[in-house]
Input
Amino acid sequence: MNRLFAATLTVLALGACTKKQPVGEVNLSPKIEVTVSNNFIPADQVTVYMVNANGGQMILGTVSPSRTQRFSYQPTTATDKFTLVAQSTNGRKLPSQQFTLVNLVSLTWDLRSNMMQFYEQ
Output
């Protein structure tokens, strides 16, 4: 009787180990909040682009002079290297430093100093 009981427990335990567990929602492309402070001198409206290492770019939006604007970016991959580019209405371009999106939740970019701050999970 003890062997039968032990065998039954073993089968139940093995069944529990191989039972498929429900898969939670996996977010492969988290949204990143990008905040841009347009304090260019001389003041000018800028269009901000997210550019990946292969040269592909996406427009995030525009920022008026002396304003700060928040954008949301949903990447297709976090392993690429990215650069932000601000292009003024007169054609002047300012690239940011290169960065990755791994564990990144948000970033801020000050155009006058061309400094970035990163906030990770």
About this structure: The chain has one domain: 32-120.
